[in-house]
Write a structure and sequence with these properties.
The complex is a heterodimer of chains A (313) and B (339). Chain A has helices at 2-29, 42-51, 58-71, 86-92, 95-123, 128-142, 145-159, 173-203, 206-214, 218-246, 250-255, 261-270, 274-302. Chain A has 313 residues and is an all-alpha fold. Chain A has 2 domains: 1-94 and 270-313, no CATH class; 96-259, MetI-like (MetI-like fold), CATH 1.10.3720. In chain A, helix 5 (95-123) runs parallel beside helix 8 (173-203), helix 5 (95-123) runs antiparallel to helix 10 and helix 6 (128-142) crosses helix 8 (173-203). The model of chain A has no long low-confidence stretch (mean pLDDT 83). In chain B, helix 5 crosses helix 6 (130-143), helix 5 (113-122) packs parallel to helix 8 (162-174) and helix 6 (130-143) crosses helix 8 (162-174). The longest helix of chain B is centred in the middle third of the chain and has 18 residues, at 192-209. The chains are: A mainly alpha (313), B alpha/beta (339). The A-B interface holds A 205-207, 209-218, 220, 224-225, 228-229, 302-305, 313 and B 59, 61, 85, 89-94, 97-98, 100, 102, 105-111, 119-120, 123-124, 156, 158, 169, 172-173, 176.
């Protein structure tokens, strides 16, 4: 198991290298420069390029990135917060934490509501409740986040005045309701759909019949025998999604004026702040890779048939 | 009342139908039998003859759209059809248990064997201690011939071979000491040597725990080996029923005869061809007016195609539903009810 995890970390570093290269070439492929403003002259831009090493050949620039990253130096911001170390921007200004806070809550809600809803729908298959949930989840999956977020904002903040339009740093529970709801609703619905389908599949398996023949109570059959077997597709889905949720959604952060990483990421792409783009991408990628590892280990916990190593079973 | 004391299970004129969009499928169409204590009865028939459906009806595991539409199932004097779901749950696994055809898929892959075995006890008796349930499960595994039972208890089904899983299934079915065990093709998915082992285990354990068994199979060899009596089913009806020796040495119904003739035999010449039963089973959505086997029967007469044959008794409780028994020259015919 430990060897397996070490191997995976090795593979992860390689993956990150590839991601860095791709990101580097992509951001250099976008026209424009961090120093380009209406007033700047070509000479000024050239000077700035020279100062920050942007005049060097691309391959040398990439090499510098990699070497500096290995040293733990993520560079300094060129534009957004000129001169501030990128590390501080991401980790010490509360952006990352804020996005993680929002993300973890949304994820927890998606799992804690989505899975039971799926179970309820499967348990009452064909009933009006199942029908209602099916409509709700289909609508939930179809509504774009920005529409839902705007609707919530218009209803509860503007019309009814119960909640604030600006959520800010999510300090109070009240300020968290709308962002979390709009962020997690899609996932609640998707997880519920997924759970329902795999639950129905599990219910028709032979081992459920065995459990019934043993005289096991119906709710225990569902919660013990069917649920654990039906969680595998849900885990598969949640893995990559978790990273996405945790690192924040640009839309939700923008709509509710939350100064999180998601919003900042988009702004730094707009302003061609290369070191910030690179660092944010690498941090998010590392998170995705890490979540994939967590998922693979979670499989093993849920399903004993899965072996993580290459050993033939 | 006396009658039902003597018999563990009485099934009378049981009818099970599946209500499909295409119409009512009479999967089991009026079958009757009795099963005594410690008795092993075989139910033989080809796929779709209704033998499994009949068993599911007894244990109350019929799935939609299947429904019992007539008849009675009396278990130790109690009418099982009057039981609600919760009462049936109390019966399942405790008084009547069941093992299934495919041991590869019948155990839950994500729980240990020990967990699944002890659950069969704890779900009926919450007062039983974990330790006692565990010990009984270990004992049961030893009884069905699983070595190193303590260690095996902590393993998962995928760490067991097919034969071992079926042994574990048998252990699980018998751990609550049920009075009746329904074995639905328990050896069909196993290879022949394992089949023989499983049959030995079942025969052995049947004597130890004193349980009656309904043995459902399409394998006549298996029936000959383990059963006391046999019911032969065809298209939802029992066509012949009797003592195992009578069925094998003195088959009465043309279908039974044809089944026996289609089996390979060791005492026949090397290149003897097997005799198949021509034709296909009837469409249960649209059963024929006459005998269900009529269209495939080599000895079919006019009356066979127009009227259902009644049962004729040929002695020793041996009954057969065929018009031939009522023809001149046939053995003396009892005035049976219509089958």
């Amino acid at each position: 198991m430990i060897i397996y995890i070490l191997k995976r970390i090795g593979a992860a570093l390689l993956t990150l290298l590839v991601i860095m290269s791709i990101t580097f070439f992509l951001m250099n492929a976008i026209p424009g420069s961090p120093f380009l403003t209406e007033k700047s002259t070509p000479q000024q831009i050239e000077l700035a390029n020279k100062k920050y090493g942007l005049d060097k050949p691309l391959i040398v620039q990439l090499k510098n990135y990699v070497v500096n990253y290995l040293k733990g130096d993520l560079g300094t911001s060129l534009k957004m917060q000129e001169g501030t170390p990128v590390k501080d921007i991401i980790f010490h200004q509360g952006k990352f934490i804020l996005s993680i806070k929002l993300g973890l809550w949304s994820l927890a809600i998606a799992v804690l509501i989505g899975i039971p809803l799926g179970c309820i729908a499967a348990y009452n298959r064909g009933s009006w409740l199942d029908g209602f949930l099916r409509v709700m989840t289909t609508v939930g999956v179809a509504i774009p986040t920005f529409v839902l977020a705007t609707l919530l904002l218009a209803t509860f903040a503007v019309k009814l005045g119960w909640l604030d339009t600006i959520s800010g740093s999510l300090e109070s529970a009240k300020s968290m309701i709308m962002p979390i709801l709009s962020m997690s609703f899609y996932y609640i619905c998707y997880v519920a759909k997924l759970t329902r389908t795999s639950m129905l599949d599990a219910i028709n398996q032979d081992y459920i019949r065995t459990a019934r023949a043993k005289g096991v109570k119906r709710n225990i059959i569902i919660l013990k025998h069917a649920l654990r077997n039906s969680l595998i597709p849900v885990i598969t889905y949640l893995g990559p999604v978790t990273a996405g949720i945790i690192t924040g959604s640009f839309v939700v952060e923008s709509t509710f004026s939350i100064p999180g990483l998601g919003k900042y990421y988009v702004q730094c792409v707009m302003s061609r702040d290369y070191p910030v783009i690179m660092a944010t991408t690498v941090v998010l990628s590392a998170l995705v890779i890490f979540m994939n590892l967590v998922v693979d280990v979670a499989y093993k916990v849920v399903d004993p048939r899965i072996t993580l190593t290459n050993k033939e079973d | 009342m006396n009658e039902s004391k003597k018999n563990l299970l009485e099934v009378k004129d049981l009818k099970v139908s599946f209500f499909t969009p295409a119409g009512e499928v009479k999967a089991v169409d009026g079958i009757s039998y009795t099963l005594g204590y410690n008795e092993v009865m075989g139910i033989v028939g080809e796929s779709g003859s209704g033998k499994s459906v009949e068993a599911y009806a007894v244990i109350g595991l019929l799935q939609n759209p299947g429904k019992v539409v007539g008849g009675s199932i009396t278990f130790e004097g109690e009418d099982l059809l009057s039981y609600d779901e919760e009462q049936m749950r109390g019966v399942r696994g405790k008084d009547i248990s069941m093992i299934f055809q495919n041991p590869m898929t019948c155990l839950n892959p994500v729980y240990t064997i020990g967990n699944q075995l002890t659950e069969a006890l704890t779900c009926h008796d919450t007062s039983i201690s974990k330790e006692e349930a565990w010990n009984r499960a270990v004992h049961m595994l030893q009884l069905v011939g699983i070595n190193n039972a303590e260690k095996r208890m902590t393993q998962y089904p995928h760490e067991f071979s097919g034969g071992m899983r079926q042994r574990a299934m048998i252990a699980m079915a018998l751990i609550g000491e049920p009075k009746l065990l329904i074995a639905d093709e328990p050896t069909t998915a196993l290879d022949v040597t394992i089949q023989a082992q499983i049959l030995d285990v079942m025969k052995d354990i049947q004597k130890r725990v004193n349980t009656s068994i309904i043995f459902i199979t399409h394998n006549l060899g298996v029936v000959a080996e383990v059963c006391d009596k046999v019911s032969v089913m065809y298209a939802g009806k029992i066509v012949e029923q009797g003592d195992v020796n009578d069925i094998f040495y003195d088959p009465q119904h043309p279908y039974t005869k044809a089944l026996l003739a289609s089996m390979p035999r060791l005492d026949e010449g090397e290149h003897e061809r097997l005799i198949p039963i021509e034709g296909t089973p009837i469409d249960l959505l649209d059963p024929p007016q006459g005998c269900n086997f009529g269209p495939r029967c080599k000895e079919c007469r006019k009356i066979c195609l127009s009227k259902k044959p009644p049962y004729a008794e040929t002695g020793n409780g041996h009954i057969s539903a065929c018009w031939l028994h009522f023809m001149e020259g046939a053995k003396q015919a009892g005035s049976g009810e219509e089958a």
